[in-house]
Amino acid sequence: MGTTVMENAVKNGIEGIVAECGGAMLCATCHVYVDPAFVDKLDPIGEEQDEMLGATAAERKPNSRLSCQIRMKPDLAGLIVRMPDRQY
Amino acid sequence: MQPGVVIVGGGQAGLEAAAGLRTQGYDGTVTLICEEPHAPYQRPPLSKEFLTGKQEIDRVFLRALAYYEKQRIDLILDQRVTEINPGAKLVHLSGGGTVPYAQLILAVGARNRMLPAPGAENVLYLRSLDEAVTLKQRLAEARHGVAVIGGGFIGLEAAAAARMAGKPVTVIEAAPRLMSRAVPPVLSDFFLDLHRAHGSEVLLNTVAVEVRPDSVLLENGRRIAADLVVAGIGVIPNVELAQTAGLGVNDGIMVDEYMRTIDPAIFAIGDCADHPNVFAGGRARIESVQNAVDQAKCVARVIMGRPEPYRDVPWFWTDQFDVRFQMAGLSGAHDQFVLRGSIEARKFSVFYFKQGRLLAVDSVNRPGDHVTARKMLAAGTPLTTEQASDETVDLKRLAAAG
After folding, report:
1. Which of B371, B372, B395 should we substitute to test contact with A (largest number of A Cβ atoms within 10 Å)?
2. Is B118 helix (H, G, I), strand (E, B) or coil?
3. B28-77 pLDDT per residue, tens
4. What is the CA angle B3-B11-B152, rounded to 5?
5. B62 chain-A contacts, CB cut-off 8 A
6. pLDDT of residue A23
7. Which domains does chain B have, with CATH numbers?
8. How far away is chain A from the Cα of B70, in angstroms, using its nearest Cα?
9. ipTM of this model?
10. Total structural domains in chain A?
11. Nearest by CB: A22 against B19, B44, B372
12. Which residues does chain B have within 8 Å of residue A28's beta carbon, measured at their own beta carbons?
């Protein structure tokens, strides 16, 4: 089991990802925009994430994801994500 | 070195206060004193993902150890504060040392209420990391049955984990319904059905009078076979340190809407703080991640000279079997509620109103409703009972319009 992008960011104090629920997929404050080069390598968006992405503070784009749902795996090495301008 | 901020308590409130100070640019020393031998960790997964085996224990820590060094947060582990000396502005540690402070934040939390019955040494509790590790181990070993005393959130999460592990489970609740402090009967009934449908025996109006190594004896004389007994019967706020220091104490440590105690240099946040809460319509003490995190941010702003009163929307969640239950606002004072969605399909929300004003929303497997409700409650968005119960009304659009 790999760790998630959200965990790696929060545990190392990278600002811009809030994740106030700790990764339980219920706050939509770990929203990121995934670099287009990596979007196809991500797991499909589940129903619950889809509903939560509809509630993000910043605009939802096709490459929007909750970073608590991006689990690191070998083909995501070098992954680039961008922070939205706000999480609330 | 100049005394800085000392935080007593390494739970989520304490950690978030330390992190919040650094995020907001605080440059003085920050000392975080933790009673446990562990760096700060998340409690919610202990009774959820960790207990059900979905998550390893090393994932529960809130920050990497390198973070504390980089952010110059001095972690003192495995030591208790035994006394506060408000006159000299210092705290005494169980290891014998003292730490001076300019500001002191009490994030001392709460402790398990112990079962007042003979045989209590046979009972496990679930609050700390160590307790969770022990419980998980004992759960794996349990053969004859698991008895859960207390049908609140912790008890029911433990009961669900035990059932999911295939153990025979009995829930023993003294009140006439489950989770009675937090939810109205409609949801108590839903969770009763849920646990019974998964094969647990749920006994209401039932009191355990003795715990033996192989069973629990009930007041009505019945014996429940169980080689593992877990109690989740509430917590007691840790007020003694504040009390001895002469700070005001009621249900918890008394603070104002800026988390200040009667001593201008001492604050209290999180599970231990008895605070004015606009959503409660009075003073409240709330045991939740939201309350811990938002009060930590509030106190960091106050110390940085940018005070804003604590007005955040309370929210909470629990996972039991395949049900995710989320609460926004505080429903206690409602005089009316309406349903959105289907109880049978296990996808619904209950919208609570008081005198026509939205008070709270409880959601079962409807995370979108929950997030939208939080926005509406924060902004005071007007909502009618008709709109709430009408699935053709787009709540997200209403929330976005404010």
Report:
1. B371
2. coil
3. 999 999 999 999 999 999 999 999 999 899 999 999 999 999 999 999 99
4. 150
5. 10-11, 22
6. 84
7. 5-111+237-303 (3.50.50.60), 114-231 (3.50.50.60), 322-401 (3.30.390.30)
8. 9
9. 0.87
10. 1
11. B44
12. 371
